[in-house]
Design goal:
9 strands, about 140 residues, five-stranded mixed beta sheet, four-stranded mixed beta sheet, alpha+beta
Length: about 140
């Protein structure tokens, strides 16, 4: 009886994973939020297309965001544009979103790390990596 339970559970788990992987594999997002991605997940992009990666930040605290890519990377990434959140009082130094444009250059894969640095520190406070698969 225990054997059948384990076998049934394994089949159910594998069937569920197969469907999820297929849905993910055919998904080419136009825009993603780094807050919604776990470390080292993948994003697919068509060659020549661009994916916007949004990162929440508050530059008035001194924390900065940077990116690091592998050499011979299959994507290019711009420096990111920061847009401050609108405030009713016109508050200076309000948080906002930095948007990076990641463009597929050539077929292949590339790891892009998004790093947050504390003021005056060289070590990363937070680091998230996304694998980009270019088709």
């Amino acid at each position: 009886m225990k054997k059948y339970f384990i076998l049934s559970f394994a089949i159910l788990a594998l069937t569920g994973c197969r469907t999820t992987m297929q849905e993910d594999w055919n998904y080419f997002p136009k825009e993603v939020s780094l807050d919604n991605y776990n470390h080292l997940q993948f994003i697919k992009v068509k060659k020549g297309n661009t994916v916007l990666v949004n990162v929440h930040e508050n530059p008035s605290t001194g924390y900065t965001n940077t990116t690091e890519i592998e050499s011979n990377c299959s994507v290019s990434i711009d420096g990111g544009e920061f847009i401050q959140d609108e405030t009713s009082t016109g508050l200076v130094g309000a948080p906002g979103v930095r948007t990076y444009k990641v463009t597929g250059k050539e077929t292949g894969t590339c790891l892009v790390e998004f790093q947050t640095h504390a003021p005056g520190e060289n070590e990363d406070v937070q680091k998230k990596g996304i694998y980009f698969i270019v088709e």
